[in-house]
Amino acid sequence: MTANSIEAVFFDVDGVLIDSPDVHVRFWLEAFKPYNIDLPAQRLHLEEGRKSMDIARRIVRDYKLDLSDDKLEELIRWKREQYRLHSPSGMRSDALTAVRDVKANGWKVGLVSGSVKKNIMSVLSEGELSLFDVKITAESYKKSKPDPEPYLTACRKACAEQQNCIAIENAPLGIESAKAAGMKVVAITSTLPEALLKDADVIMNDLNGLAEVLTLIRR
Predict the structure, then answer these.
(1) How far is residue 124's CA from residue 121's CA, in Å, rounded to a whole number?
(2) What is the CATH number assigned to the segment(s) 21-86?
(3) What is the pLDDT of residue 170?
(4) Which of 13, 110, 130, 156 has the fewest beta carbons closer than 10 A?
């Protein structure tokens, strides 16, 4: 990446723009509680970025549960309803400032999430959503993170070359997805320790000063 070459900056949503990963974990655990399995919270944090059905199928496989896709769809519908009821609304203050600063630099800004559109619309206001030039949700692609498809889709929608784009992530699967797409990655330690985010190009505690960090990365 050379000077002045940033074209777009893409933000993950859960754990980056809003403090919601613990809500996801809480209701995944509730959804599978009747099946008496020991489902560690960190395992669910490490699954962040996948589509819900992909996560559910992996749990069924690993714990050898006898659950059909129809039953999993039922669990997922319930879990999404609970997410929309209990997730915090609106961006964190540091995230809102970071998005505005990115736009002020003349770079395109997008969100790239494994969540469905209805979930995103339930936690971000119309004004917040209007800040994003590109909005990639679970309906936008077939293969979820860690596959590069979500970020490659974002680059196409933004009409930007992936080597000139930067992803802001908080989980290993998102980092892997963006790196596989040929992008630089800034990770924040909002849900997982730095040791689990080591494949990112830069690791931050939060999004304060993000624009300045991006300016350094582009060199």
Answers:
(1) 5
(2) 1.10.150
(3) 97
(4) 130
Distance between CA atoms of 175 and 169, rounded to whole angstroms?
6
User: Is 89 in a helix, a strand, or coil?
Assistant: coil
Cα separations in angstroms, 151 against 46, 109, 186, 189, 206 = 18, 13, 14, 21, 22
| In the predicted structure, residue 158 carries a pLDDT above the cut 80 | yes
Instruction: Quickly list DSSP for 62-75.
Output: HTT----HHHHHHH
What tokens does 116 get?
């469905």
Q: What angle do CA 17, 42, 49 make, to 5 degrees?
A: 45
The domains of the chain are located at: 8-19+89-217, 21-86
CATH no. of 8-19+89-217? 3.40.50.1000
